TrEMBL record:
InterPro entries: DNA/RNA_pol_sf (IPR043502), Rev_trsase/Diguanyl_cyclase (IPR043128), RNA-dir_DNA_polymerase (IPR053134), RT_dom (IPR000477). Signal peptide: none annotated. It comes from the Eukaryota. This is Reverse transcriptase domain-containing protein. Residues 1-106 form the Reverse transcriptase domain. PROSITE patterns: RT_POL (PS50878).
């Protein structure tokens, strides 16, 4: 994300090689992820929950048919290009029939828990105080839709 010109001097820092300023928002800034997420939501809004899901810089494209998927992929790439954003191809995974996304495994069979992400829950020590119970519920609450009778 390009910074407004008036804010560039605020990012200045010295090194032994000289004085530098960011012209794009570095992810180390407190609000950078929220600002980037807001931008991505605005850019992708017409397609969100139709065939895109966006979480910061992770984008999931889902489709019922390979033909639809080709159209959806092209739509995303054209949208990014129009906004002068680019996907790093080495970090992209395309044409997958099964994908791990935000702690879930998504496939034509539906959405399941990514078991590698739930190891902490299964190995959690029995909570012995109200604070420990709250911590445990916060941890496993993310997966509550997969836990029968969770409330």
């Amino acid at each position: 994300m390009l910074l407004q010109e008036k804010h560039v001097p605020k990012t200045a820092f010295p090194t032994m090689y000289g004085h530098y300023e960011f012209i794009v928002m570095p992810f180390g800034l407190t609000n950078a992820p929220a600002a980037f997420m807001d931008m991505m939501n605005r850019i992708c809004k017409p397609y969100l929950d139709k065939f895109f899901i966006v979480f910061i810089d992770d984008i999931l494209i889902y489709s019922k048919t390979p033909e639809d998927h080709a159209i959806h992929l092209r739509t995303l790439l054209e949208l990014l290009r129009h906004e002068k954003l680019y996907a790093k191809f080495s970090k992209c995974e395309v044409w997958l029939t099964k994908v791990q996304f935000l702690g879930h495994v998504i496939s034509s069979q539906g959405i399941q828990v990514d078991l590698s992400k739930t190891e902490g829950i299964t190995k959690w020590e029995n909570p012995k105080s109200p604070t420990k119970v709250q911590s445990f519920l916060g941890l496993d609450g993310y997966y509550c839709r997969f836990i029968q009778n969770f409330s």
